[in-house]
Amino acid sequence: MAEQNPFLYALSSNNAWAGYKAHQNPSFFSKLASGQTPQILWLGCSDSRCPETTILGLQPGDVFVHRNIANIISPTDINTSAVIEYAVIHLMVKHVVLCGHSSCGGAAAALSDSRVGGVLDTWLTPLKAVRYAHAEELAAITDDKKRTVRIAELNVEAGVKVLMANFTIQDAIRDRGLEVHGTLFDIGSGRIRDLGFGTRGSTGFDGSSDEVVRGKHAQLVFRGGNAKMAVR
């Protein structure tokens, strides 16, 4: 049997998804086309295992997004700066979320003494700097996976500090109470953990609690880590 073309499969899947969404809510796409009012700006990693809208259990239009390799926040990156400016000033988002993740290839590369090659080494320089700034702590962690998670946490902390120094974000915090959060997504469990970096410190939320979440599009009922969806 010939291998299925991934792109053609994706197009077919999109067609099925669009049909399902339109059947589920006939006004969904017309409302979506009328404009966006996201409440969250998500700054995350480009890793294919970390699709923000999916892992947050939200819908198209709910999250404004910028992703790059290893979720690095650099004050000189005009791409990131433009996204922040548009989201905060024009879309008036209420939350800026910087999210790292476990099993991050960029974090592993920063911990390695080998070069990745090309522009990637230049891009990962800020993460290498995080490594050297915390060399003693990281060297004391003998488990490779735990060390990678720890540098990912430190990377989020460093990124939040850059965000908190951004004039656009500072003005929004002062004028309208914008909140900044540093988080980590655990790929192995599917849970997001609040790291306590940002405007309010830790919320104490570690993603392990069972609760009922009622959203605009559906009701997700969580019991013991399992979810059932009841569409309204």
Describe the overall structure.
This protein is an alpha/beta fold. The chain is about 45% helix and about 20% strand. The protein has ten helices and eight strands. It has helices at about 5-25, 30-35, 50-55, 80-90, 105-110, 120-125, 125-135, 135-140, 145-165, 165-175; strands at about 40-45, 65-70, 95-100, 180-185, 190-200, 210-215, 220-225, 225-230. The strands form two sheets. A five-stranded mixed beta sheet has the order 2-1-3-4-5. Strands 6-7-8 form a three-stranded antiparallel beta sheet, with no helix packed on it. Helix 5 (about 105-110) crosses helix 7 (about 125-135). Residues about 215-230 have low confidence and may be disordered. One of its GO terms (cellular component) is cytoplasm. Keywords: Lyase, Metal-binding, Zinc. Its cofactor is Zn(2+). Its EC number is 4.2.1.1. It catalyses: hydrogencarbonate + H(+) = CO2 + H2O.
Low-pLDDT stretches: 217-232
Structural class: alpha/beta
Q: How are the strands ordered across the major sheet? A: 2-1-3-4-5
Radius of gyration: 19 Å
Major sheet description: 5 strands, mixed
Number of strands: 8
* Estimated share of beta-strand residues: 15-25%
Shape field:
globular
Average predicted local confidence, pLDDT: 91
Through-space gap between termini: 41 Å
How many helices does DSSP assign?
10
What is the percent of helical residues?
Answer: 40-55%
Task: Give the helices and strands as they follow along the chain.
Answer: HHEHEHEHHHHHHEEEEE
